[in-house]
Amino acid sequence: MTSLATSRLNRFGALAVALTVLLPLGQAQAEVGDFYKGKTIKLVIASGEGGGVDLLGRAVARHLGKHIRGNPSFIVNNIPQPSAIGGASFVYNVAKPDGLTIGGASAGLFSRAVTRPNIKFKLDRFTWLGNLYKATVLFWMRTDFPCQTLEALKTCPQRLKFGGTSRGSTGYGLVPALIKDALGLNMDMIVGYKNTAIVLALEQGEIDASGGDIIGFFGGRPYALMKEGKVKILAQVAGSKADELKPFNVPWIMDVVPASHKPLFEMVNPWIDMARPYFAPPGVPADRAKHLQDAFKKLAKDQAFTGEVKKAARIDITLVPGDEMLTKIQAMLKLPPEVKEKITNLVRKKKRKKK
Questions:
Q1: Given CA atoms 244, 246, 250, 256 in this order, what sign does their dihedral have?
Q2: What is the pLDDT along the chain (355 residues), one digit of tens a residue?
């Protein structure tokens, strides 16, 4: 039978072991707090101003600091190169790996990385901090266009002019190209627009349709145009139907595309599920990387933050933690060659020349 002294000794030993684990952790947290105190974190938004990436990114900049020890301030820098390539390249190749620069991007980052082998960064080497939004990509158009359904657009006598940013962009390039290919739409894709110029081009009749996602649509001018009866949402693309679109009876693309094309959409859906990724350069010190990842987990539960985003863009925050993001990305990089080739061909396809 164990003596009282031995029992106390065992408890003391267990406490000592616990302290050896907790003290370094507490010390590391204190060191992180000391590092960030009085510092400013640069948030590089890999998009132009006013779009969905920018709306969410600026909300992140207003709220993330309170979840980081030392309460650093934030500044925002927009790099509007299409498909998030400019912002991602800056964070990967230029920013110091000290935890004072983070990036925010769109799903276009993944599509471009998969389809363009000459990019100057590697997805699986970023320090992934968290994803805050599971997107739904929209295909929307003017209500005065002669053909008003996907079925009608197959044989429409007038070609639909779709305006986008780049073919590497998921919402403005790849997804509409997939829809066009899958359904055989009579449609031209005109790329090269900045996010802020697309709606103006549509209002002026330069284009007939565009894309993007819910956060940009409901948080900007397109939603006002829909309330005025000038535009309508023709299709939604995501891994599942969006609750936000139930009142509008928007067709889900998986219900209308042929079986032959469903694997392509099933491949793209994970990109859409990580539509608002946040990341830091490779090589950020482990304690700071972990602290930033934990800060994003807390941010996703911050009612002031989630409430602001819900009010501004009518979306709910959906967190994918940084470590889970890396697992998904590593799986993405092992895509079957034939599926990847099909996607790549659609992204690189040249637009139809006007006669």
A1: positive
A2: 455 555 554 555 555 554 454 445 455 566 887 999 999 999 999 998 888 889 999 999 999 999 999 999 999 999 987 768 899 999 999 999 999 999 999 888 887 787 777 888 999 999 999 999 888 999 999 999 999 999 999 999 999 999 998 877 888 888 999 999 999 999 999 998 987 799 999 999 999 999 988 878 988 899 999 999 999 999 999 888 988 899 999 999 999 999 988 888 887 888 888 989 999 999 999 999 999 999 999 999 999 999 999 888 777 899 999 999 999 888 878 777 888 888 888 777 654 433 3
Which of 320, 242, 230, 312 has the alpha carbon at shortest distance from 275? 320
Give the pTM: 0.70
Distance CA 13, CA 7 (A): 10
How far apart, in whole angstroms, are the C-alpha atoms of residue 44 and residue 254? 34
CB 321 within 8 A of CB 278: no
Q: Residue 88: CB partners within 8 Å, gap ≥ 6?
A: 46, 103, 105, 109, 121, 126, 279
d(CA 43, CA 61): 7
Cα(66)–Cα(51) distance, integer angstroms? 25
Instruction: Please give the domain boundaries of the chain with CATH numbers for all domains.
Output: 33-134+273-341 (3.40.190.150), 137-270 (3.40.190.10)
Return the pLDDT at 83.
Answer: 66
d(CA 330, CA 276): 18
- The two beta strands, 209-210 and 137-142, are antiparallel
Give the span between the Cα atoms of 171 and 60, in whole angstroms. 22
Count CB neighbours of 62 within 10 A.
14
323: number of Cβ within 10 Å: 11
Q: Structure tokens of 342? A: 């099909």
For the chain, give the number of residues: 355
Half-sphere exposure of 256 (CA within 13 A, CB side): 21
141 three-class SS: strand
Strands 40-45 and 73-78: parallel
Rounded to the nearest 10°, the torsion over CA 117, 123, 124, 125 is 100
